[in-house]
Amino acid sequence: MRCRRWAARPQPSREKVGSHEKRHTRCRFFFVWIAQVIVDILLQQVINGLVQGSVYALVALGYTMVYGILGLINFAHGEVVMIGAMIALTVLKALLAAAFAPVLAVLLSLLAAMAVCMALGYSIERIAYRPLRNAPRLAPLITAIGVSIVLQNLAMMIWGREYHSFPLPFNSVSHQFGGAIVNDVQIGIVVVALIIMLGLMWLVHRTRMGRAMRAVAENPSAAALMGVDINRVISVTFMLGSALAAIAGFMVSANYGIVHYYMGFMLGLKAFTAAVLGGIGNLRGAMLGGVLLGLIESLGAGYIGDLTGGFLGSNYQDVFAFFVLIAVLIFRPSGLLGEKLSERA
Amino acid sequence: MRLNHFLTRHFVLAIALLALPFIIDALFGHGWVRITDFALLYIMLALGLNIVVGYAGLLDLGYIAFFAVGAYTYALVSSPQFGLHWPMWITLPLGALIACGFGVLLGAPTLKLRGDYLAIVTLGFGEIIRIFLNNLNAPVNITNGPQGISAIDPLQIGSFSFGNSYQWMGMRVDDVHLHYYLFLGFTLLVIFISRRLEDSRIGRAWVAIREDEVAASAMGINTRNIKLLAFAMGATFGGISGGLFAGFQGFVSPESFSLMESIMVLCMVVLGGMGNVGGVVLGGVILVALPELFRNAAGPVQQALLGKVVVDPESLRMLMFGLALILVMLWRPAGLWPSTQRRREFAADDSVLQQEQETVYDASK
Fold first, then answer.
1. Which of A225, B37, B48, B98 is the most buried (most CB within 10 A)?
2. Residue of B nearest to A341 (CA)
3. For B212-241, how does the pLDDT look when each residue is reduced to its tens digit (9 = 90+)?
4. In this complex, which of A136, A149, A341 lies closest to B321 when CB atoms are compared?
5. Measured distance CA(A232)–CA(A324) in Å, rounded
6. A139 with B334: Cβ contact below 8 A
7. Beta carbons of B163 and B154 less than 8 angstroms apart
8. Interface of B with A in 297-326 (CB under 8 A)
9. Residue A165 forms beta bridges with which residues?
10. Each residue of B293-334: pLDDT tens digit?
11. Which helix (H) or strand (E) holds A63?
């Protein structure tokens, strides 16, 4: 229908010999062109979604590990990501100013951010969560909110309200990849995230510490009776999650080139959504949820206008993500990979 | 006889409440009366959320959406936006009704969800409402987008407007005082309803669902309807409070209904003492007053101690507020003023725990 109208317009003499074939070739050409554009946009959006989703997945793992063991929403986790990004920024700037080799500077700043965040995660748990372990369920939620407010304002005092640009010491080369464009940073994010997730799975399922973590998640008091030091396991969990958060913070800043004291809030919220989408408390669920949320968001932003006939623009991207979340939870009330909770959960 | 007793007991309190705005005005100035008005609005909100979270035990992180719905309903039908100027006694109930509808809309699909899954869905719901308010200025301009709706009519009964100042027996009564009395009336009504609900059949059903949903439904409670009722009831209070907010402020924009606001209201409920009306009121007063106190203290105190303002007072204020949240919760995990039932449960938990530990030690001997 659309094709015919498009082809008919510039055709003044329709009675001419051969006009029929001509129209057809034009029409086909048009379709090929449209399909090419759609595929290109699709590919580009899928790549963007994968990159964003890898970051979400790393942050979501932090939420889900803590939730699996303590049954607690660690609302301050997003701010840990932000602190990680800020530390990485500061150290990276200092090292580059001292003329370090770029690769060394990046590695050192990442390590510094991880170290600071691990210390931060450890202290948050000690100060705000451990004293409330036997308290009513919502009490640690409020302290978590308190910690989040404190960290955010502390960061605002130290680093100010302005947007900082994140200095990348090397050129991020863009590659043409079947019509879509990928740069080195994006490839790096996906690869590093994959390696880290594989490492985490190995740690949780193959090591002694991992076994202890799973035992505590299953039943803390039984684990304690079997000789597992619960406090140590919980501390390690928080430190692990915070280290992942630091890496995620570095990735986000490198990808967007911007660091801001408020960046942790929305990122944390999205990552938490991802963790719930996959089934909170489940590591594979957090990874799946993160990547899915990233894809949904970028595809939603790209196509929401076409789907609704131009009624909703890409500013409804977040609405789209939340609608998908709600729809998933209605049909699978404990997330995609979450275990079915017993009635008395 | 009983009425008499009631009166003598509440007489002093009533006088104090009636005189409060003028005392505050005389002591701290006009601005603080305004803050008191906001405190009353927040108390209404917190009491509404208390029904959902405190009584029925359903964690709602998007409660501010109902406040937004009430506020925008009022704003749309009594402002130049559509050229409508409906009177308050239509707009407030309308706002409450629409908010109630949204409450059921949120409640219906989430009945199966538990605990933190419910929390994230309500959070998403709140964000969805906010994003729609923010973007519904195109293609048809309904909410005027991020600019919000301004020049909203003041709250008005007949020709008596709460937005004006009046001279009364040689005393100047300003709009903030008038709003105080209006809001006080509504707050007392909400408190009354909450107290009556608490001991009613419905209130007990909510508590039963909170404690154990399976047992509650085995006892013949229609858990679906009772849960929906909790959402609808909480949302209604939120809607009324939102309408009053719009009329008082004269301006609404999506910015006032962010997730942080939902979290603040939740903090009031939990910090004050979940499920206890007095505790929730206390929590509301503290969480509204505290940031304001810090705001007034953060700058001048630095000036006095260090001779200059070293740290940005605004962030210092929020920093202190966050610290206060943590410290209060560590100090009193069940809230500042928990209900007697909760206090008992909390004490019981310890003894049960101790008992269990003792048996465990006995077994190991």
1. B48
2. B114
3. 888 999 999 999 999 999 999 999 999 999
4. A149
5. 38
6. yes
7. yes
8. 311-312, 315-316, 318-319, 321-326
9. A258
10. 888 777 777 777 776 666 777 788 888 889 988 998 898 888
11. helix A19-70
CA distances from A156 to A76, A82, A164, A264, B70 (A): 15, 11, 12, 12, 34
- From CA A67, how far away is CA B227, in angstroms rounded? 26
Q: Which of A143, A315, A344 sits opposite B325 (nearest CB)?
A: A143
Inter-chain touch A344–B214, beta carbons under 8 Å: yes
> How is chain B split into domains, by residue range?
17-271, 340-365
What DSSP designation does B308 have?
Answer: S
Place of tokens 């200092």: A94
pLDDT at A57: 95
CA distances from A268 to A193, A223, B60, B224, B303 (A): 17, 30, 18, 32, 36
Rg from Cα positions in chain B = 22
Query: Residue B126, exposed/middle/buried by CB under 10 A (0-12, 13-18, 19+)?
Result: buried
Q: How close, in Å, is residue A73 to chain B by CA atoms? A: 8
Cα torsion A128, A129, A132, A135 to 10°: value is 120
Q: Chain A to chain B, count of Cβ pairs less than 8 Å apart?
A: 139
Indicate the DSSP class of residue A183.
E
pLDDT in tens, A250-296: 999 999 889 999 888 889 988 988 998 898 888 999 999 999 999 98
Q: What percent of chain A has pLDDT over 70?
A: 83
In degrees and rounded to multiples of 5, residue A162 shows phi and psi of -80, 165
Give me the pLDDT at residue B361, please. Answer: 45
Long-range contacts of B30-35 (CB under 8 A, 24+ apart): B30/B174, B30/B176, B32/B292, B33/B174, B33/B176, B33/B177, B33/B180, B34/B176, B35/B288, B35/B289, B35/B292
Residues of chain B contacting residue A310, judged by C-beta atoms under 8 Å apart: 139
User: What pLDDT is stored for residue A13 in this prediction?
Assistant: 43
The residues, ordered by sequence, that sit 6+ positions from B183 with a Cβ below 8 Å of its Cβ are: B37, B40, B41, B44, B244, B248
Q: What is the arithmetic mean of pLDDT over B63-83?
A: 91
Closest residue in chain B to residue A322, using alpha carbons only: B124
Q: Using the 8-state DSSP alphabet, how is residue B55 labeled? A: I
Structure tokens at B48: 């509404």
Q: Lowest mean pLDDT: which of A179-193, B145-159, B248-262?
A: B145-159
> Does B14 contact chain A (CB < 8 Å)?
no
Identify the CA nearest to B234 among candidates B184, B190, B281.
B190
Put simply, the answer to whether A344 touches B117 (Cβ < 8 Å) is no
Distance from CA of B107 to the nearest CA of A (A): 12
Distance from CA of A175 to the nearest CA of B (A): 35
pLDDT at position A322, please?
Answer: 83
Q: What is the spatial distance between Cα A113 and Cα A90, in angstroms, rounded to a whole number?
A: 9
Domain locations along chain A: 48-166+178-264
Q: How many Å lie between the alpha carbon of A45 and the closest alpha carbon of chain B? A: 22
